[in-house]
Specification:
about 35% helix; transmembrane helix; alpha/beta; about 375 residues; about 25% strand; electron transfer activity; 3 domains; metal-binding; copper ion binding; Immunoglobulin-like; elongated; five-stranded mixed β-sheet
């Protein structure tokens, strides 16, 4: 018959150890996890030894009480064990399982020999002990010197988020028109876009279906927007785009075809604030030229060659600045650039000398 005086503490210690291991390796016991690992592991191993000795003392019992007790213990052990090894956050589950088996099996063998064949206990125990010690030493040694140095803490590289650098170039807007999915309808507006290199082209999907902007050359090798959702925007920086014609299509509706023409960057159109512009007198030139006609997409540059400070601020002295552009204060030798992307007449003035006025007509 089994020795219940040994089995009862064995069952208790084993259950406590399993519960502790479950708490530790499931990530619940963060504050004392290392200590809990060692304590619960040792408790469970001692419990297994007691349990094995109790079961084997006097022979394996076949009574109903022993069968019921064994079934309960196995259920508890399997339940906690499965939870500990499958529902945990540890990266060392396989290692822990190996250590448990490496200690549990020799413990059961030694307990069996102690009860049934005590004469073989010392030699077999010595062999098992030496084998276990050799295995542990080799495992640790190989962990330091093998190609897979698993015993050495590995430094995890932290990937820093890549910040998208917004293009500072002027925007050239193209619209994907509503109803463009119907073959023959207007699709991209403008259908032929002439854009100076360095501009940012911005396509806006105003249709009720998704579209793409895909270069015909290499079917997307030059540029490809992927899917542009309804109301979505795709931007393309043309700084590194080759000068010349680039045909593009919608890969979902290949009959939607348009052309993007990249031109060499143009020199900005220059307006000079001449010397003496701050003096209000007849015949004095304030901005040279005072009125200028330019095309949409033209960059205008104001240069202050006067010996006092000035501004180029959109609006007029009566109603004030309208917020379209503002150079802030331009000291002697300073310049200011602004690109006109919409047609219209743009009046501007100097907020320091409001009699200084000029006009840019964009066609």
């Amino acid at each position: 018959m089994s020795n219940w005086d040994l089995m009862m503490p064995g069952m208790g210690l084993t259950a406590i150890g399993l519960a502790g291991l479950t708490l530790a390796y499931s990530g619940i016991a963060h504050t004392f996890i290392d200590g809990l690992h060692a304590l619960t592991g040792l408790t469970m191993f001692v419990g297994l030894i007691f349990l094995s000795a109790g079961i084997l003392d006097g022979g394996i019992s076949t009574s109903n009480r022993a069968k019921a007790t064994t079934l309960v213990i196995l259920s508890i052990a399997l339940g906690f064990g499965m939870f500990a090894f499958t529902m945990n956050t540890s990266n060392y589950t396989i290692t822990i399982a190996g250590i448990l088996m490496a200690i549990a099996f020799p413990a059961i063998i030694i307990a069996y020999l102690a009860m049934k064949h005590p004469a073989y206990l010392k030699p077999v125990g010595s062999i098992v002990g030496i084998a276990a010690a050799t295995g542990i030493i080799m495992w640790v040694a190989f962990g330091f010197i093998s190609p897979d140095t698993y015993m050495i803490p590995q430094q995890v590289a932290i990937e820093e988020p890549i910040e998208e650098i917004a293009s500072t170039g002027p925007i050239f807007a193209i619209t994907i028109l509503e109803g463009s999915t119907q073959q023959g309808n207007p699709d991209y507006d403008p259908d032929v876009a002439v854009v100076p290199q360095g501009y940012t082209v911005e396509w806006t999907n105003a249709d009720s279906l998704v579209h793409t902007v895909t270069s015909s050359e290499g079917f997307g090798e030059t540029f490809d927007s992927s899917m542009i959702d309804v109301g979505g925007i795709f931007t393309l920086d043309t700084t590194d785009l080759e000068i010349g014609e680039h045909e593009y299509v919608c890969s979902l509706h290949p009959y939607m075809v348009a052309t993007l023409i990249i031109e060499a960057p143009k020199e900005p159109t220059k307006i000079t604030i001449p010397e003496g512009a701050a003096i209000l007198e007849e015949g004095q030139i304030f901005y040279d030229p005072e009125a200028i006609d330019v095309a949409v997409g033209t960059t205008v540059l104001w240069e202050n060659v006067d010996n006092t400070m000035h501004t180029a601020t959109s609006g007029n002295p009566d109603s004030g600045a309208d917020g379209v552009f503002d150079s802030d204060i331009l000291s002697t030798g300073d310049t200011y650039e602004f690109t006109f992307t919409d047609a219209g007449n743009y009046d501007y003035y100097c907020i320091l000398h409001p009699w200084m006025v000029g006009t840019v007509n964009v066609e």
